[in-house]
Amino acid sequence: MEAVNGTNSSNSSPPSSSLPELMEDVLLPIVGFLGILGNLGAGAVLISSNNKSAFHQSLKALIVVDLLLVIVMVVDSQQIKNQMFIFLIPYFWNPFKNTVLTFQTFLIMSISAERYLAVKKPIQFNITKVKNSIRIHFLTFILPALVLAALFNIPKFFETELVKIEALTKEENTTEEIYDYKITSLRRNPKYIFYYIHTARLLVMGIIPFLSLLVINTLIFKKIQKSNMIRESSLRLQKKQRKSRSQSIILIIIVIVYLICNLPRVTLNLTEYLMQVKQ
Predict the structure, then answer these.
(1) How many angstroms separate the CA atoms of 194 and 201, rounded?
(2) Which of 270, 273, 258 is nearest to 111 (CA)?
(3) Cβ distance 115 to 220 under 8 Å?
(4) What distance in Å separates the CA atoms of residue 232 and residue 237, rounded to the nearest whole number?
């Protein structure tokens, strides 16, 4: 499901006391607050660590993205109707939060690819500039994920637009012009809905990431198992091998959590896609 679909904010119905509303208004902020604390704690541990490896830089970037995503989701759940926030929705907020969600997916895929290269050819990887230069690592693994996420979400800038509407004032029985937003004709276009909202996002945000993460991390796990059977005579090589294994295990845990948390979203997207195909 998309991070947001543009809707008219001033004409929304009063909040009900249903279970979904209760979960959105109460449970989500609590979970979001815990997520923020967890990411801040993990970030503090990484920052305090003397380890300056490229993998740790990737984890720091992932923590920042996760933190942004949690904040975005919590803010979005509050259905803020402030005029300043409404100004931001069409041309900043809607594209931004979808870009953050996409960037998180692409970044995890990029980190997985980096770890696979590290465990497949550890000697060659350890002497490359990608391993030893933070700048080159950023340009190779982090920046491409961000650029691709931004490019993929360019259509989000054209899904909603600002409009002026007349609204009754609370104090007097008069009307005033205020700004609101509405979905555009592009967002209502059946072809756009089918090819971009359902098909493209299902592939790019669901099927392709899930399959690639499962395959890559399975290969990483098998490589770790194989390396456990090989005893290195050099203590230095043993230390590097243990470090590489621990980093790979951390990544596998992150990927498992990501797959579990995103499985409902992908399942819902797939269901919507199949329903759209049948129509």
Answers:
(1) 10
(2) 258
(3) yes
(4) 6
Say if residues 8 and 161 touch (Cβ distance below 8 Å): no
DSSP state of 154: G
Closest to 159 in 3D by CA, of 185, 127, 126, 124? 185
Amino acid (one-letter) located at 249 = I
Which pLDDT tens digit goes with each residue over 28-80?
667 666 667 776 776 676 666 666 677 778 888 888 888 888 888 888 877 77
pLDDT for 162-221, tens place per residue?
Answer: 888 877 766 666 777 788 889 999 999 999 998 999 899 989 998 999 999 999 988 888
The pLDDT of residue 192? 93
| Pair of tokens at residue 83 | 């005029």
Tell me if residue 5 falls in helix, strand or coil. Answer: coil
Q: How far apart are the C-alpha atoms of 113 and 141, rounded to whole Å?
A: 9
130: enclosing H helix or E strand: helix 129-132
**Contacts within 8 Å (CB) and 24+ apart, 127-134:** 130/54, 131/53, 131/54, 132/54, 133/54, 134/52, 134/54, 134/57
Burial of 58 from C-beta contacts in 10 A (0-12 / 13-18 / 19+): buried
Q: Write the CB contacts of 40 (distance below 8 Å, at least 6 apart in sequence).
A: 67
Instruction: Please report, in angstroms and rounded to a whole number, the separation of the first and last CA atoms in the chain.
Output: 19
Assess contact for 106 and 18: CB atoms under 8 A: no
